């Protein structure tokens, strides 16, 4: 028997179930005990990784890395190619083939069957839908005025089953809690599912909570706790939240407006922290908590005025790469705070080892290293990340805004970074490069590349050594499946546009 959430006497103990929760757009720098008491409790009972980094600064490539244990150059899923290659083995497939029940609830449009992320799941649900459907009616309820709502209703109602679509519209418009983007319903569904299952089969459960993503519109009672003293909820929620328009200098935001946006963002984090507590309670009520590894991470971070950016595109600053990562249960019990460098693509090796699962096919493809406390894998002395292609592309920005500023045109490049505990080097395929001494300059404000030519050369070689062997394989994979790229449904396009991706 385990004495505390899977904790056994054996040094290489395993757990029966795995629950993996992604807090979409959660950045490490905004997490603290006042804001997120549930996550803090999980960290104190388990293990928190202070230096965890995403492999990419946005949802699609980051989740693809998490699910496959590979870098964006390996899995080829990014702004230029949005479908997860069917030849890649995924973490849910590994759990399913090992006899686990595999279920998921996604509240992010990218992480659905439309982009290949349902593979291996017995059931992958869309949290924003009352009745599961391939048609997406989200654009109906997000129209800015009655005319837009009526137009969207007319265009989408008969895309699939009209009765199902009508039910989803009614749910989103009149039933879904104000300030909630699916987390409340997802938590309800998980609790119902846990309470109704027979309990004989181990399970892998995945959840994506998207509330911290633009637009920040937390419940009023949460927002009041984190807004500046002189800011009202009405003033804060009236601020235009259009990162791509901000990038293209269509409008500006004052320091005070950014302060209000940061308050709304923190309120969103507090709200999803409440949902984490609900998941834990559901596991406890179902008698599963003691046999479960509970893992929480952000998939990428967010700029809210830092470095002149709004959102999480076009750069590789730590603000968009450094994310919270907490393990609670099993061998991670009472593990304290670890400061070694880790990557989100290390999750497949870690979760499978902790669950006692070996999957040769996934192991053969991954760049993943297990974080299990007694793993034989080496610790990393550096992490790597990529921004393979702009999303949205510069062409799409020009279509929307006309001529875009020269500073935005410069974002039409691939970026890669290598980061050690002391230095961070960023290089673009257009020759752009920066070097930061992150130990003394954690905010990455001072480029020291001109004064450190030898260090730049060494890190440039290291970056090339990591990614050049992957380029041929990644290009071949993308080319082989290019004709199968996604023709998005209209509703999907509108949801992604609302999130700032199109």
TrEMBL record:
<dbReference type="InterPro" id="IPR052701">
    <property type="entry name" value="GAG_Ulvan_Degrading_Sulfatases"/>
</dbReference>
<protein>
    <submittedName>
        <fullName>Arylsulfatase A-like enzyme</fullName>
    </submittedName>
</protein>
<dbReference type="InterPro" id="IPR017850">
    <property type="entry name" value="Alkaline_phosphatase_core_sf"/>
</dbReference>
<feature type="domain" description="Sulfatase N-terminal">
    <location>
        <begin position="16"/>
        <end position="357"/>
    </location>
</feature>
<dbReference type="Pfam" id="PF00884">
    <property type="entry name" value="Sulfatase"/>
</dbReference>
<dbReference type="InterPro" id="IPR000917">
    <property type="entry name" value="Sulfatase_N"/>
</dbReference>
């Amino acid at each position: 028997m385990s004495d505390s959430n899977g904790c056994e006497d054996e040094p290489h103990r395993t757990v029966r179930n795995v629950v993996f929760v992604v807090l979409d757009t959660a950045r490490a720098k905004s997490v603290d005990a006042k804001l997120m008491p549930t996550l803090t409790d999980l960290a104190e009972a388990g293990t928190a990784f202070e230096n965890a980094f995403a492999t990419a600064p946005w949802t699609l490539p980051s989740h693809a890395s998490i699910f496959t244990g590979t870098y964006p150059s390996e899995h080829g899923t990014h702004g230029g190619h949005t479908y997860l290659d069917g030849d890649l083995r995924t973490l849910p497939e590994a759990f399913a083939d090992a006899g686990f029940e595999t279920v998921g609830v996604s509240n992010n449009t990218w992480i659905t069957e439309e982009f290949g992320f349902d593979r291996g799941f017995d059931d992958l649900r869309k949290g924003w839908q009352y009745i599961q459907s391939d048609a997406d009616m989200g654009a109906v309820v997000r129209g800015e005025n009655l005319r837009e709502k009526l137009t969207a209703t007319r265009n989408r109602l008969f895309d699939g089953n009209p009765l199902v679509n009508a039910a989803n519209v009614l749910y989103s418009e009149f039933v879904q809690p104000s300030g909630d983007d699916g987390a409340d319903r997802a938590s309800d569904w998980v609790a119902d599912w846990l309470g109704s299952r027979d309990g004989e089969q181990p399970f892998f459960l995945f959840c994506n909570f998207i509330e911290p993503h633009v637009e920040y519109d937390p419940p009023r009672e949460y927002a009041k706790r984190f807004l500046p003293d002189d800011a009202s909820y009405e003033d804060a929620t009236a601020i235009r939240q259009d990162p791509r328009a901000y990038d293209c200098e269509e409008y500006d935001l004052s320091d005070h407006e950014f302060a209000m946006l940061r308050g709304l963002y923190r309120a969103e984090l507090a709200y999803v922290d409440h949902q984490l507590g609900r998941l834990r309670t559901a596991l406890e009520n179902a008698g599963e908590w003691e046999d479960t590894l509970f893992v929480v991470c952000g998939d990428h971070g967010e700029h809210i005025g830092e470095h002149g950016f709004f959102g999480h595109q076009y750069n590789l600053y730590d603000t968009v790469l450094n994310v919270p990562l907490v393990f609670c249960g099993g061998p991670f019990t009472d593990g304290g705070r670890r400061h070694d460098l880790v990557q989100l693509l290390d999750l497949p090796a870690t979760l499978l080892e902790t669950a006692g699962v070996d999957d040769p096919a996934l192991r053969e493809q991954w760049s993943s290293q297990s974080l299990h406390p007694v793993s034989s894998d080496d610790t990393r002395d550096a992490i790597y990340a990529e921004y393979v292609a702009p999303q949205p592309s510069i062409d799409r920005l020009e279509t929307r805004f006309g001529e875009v500023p020269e500073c935005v045109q410069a974002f039409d490049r691939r970026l890669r970074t290598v980061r050690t505990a002391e230095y961070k080097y960023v290089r673009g395929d257009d020759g752009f490069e920066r070097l930061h001494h992150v130990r003394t300059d954690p905010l990455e404000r001072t480029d020291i590349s001109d004064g450190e030519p030898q260090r730049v050369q060494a890190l440039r070689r290291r970056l090339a050594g990591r990614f050049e062997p992957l380029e041929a394989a990644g290009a071949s994979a993308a080319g082989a499946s290019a004709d199968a790229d996604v023709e998005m449904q209209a509703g999907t396009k509108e949801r992604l546009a609302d999130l700032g991706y199109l």
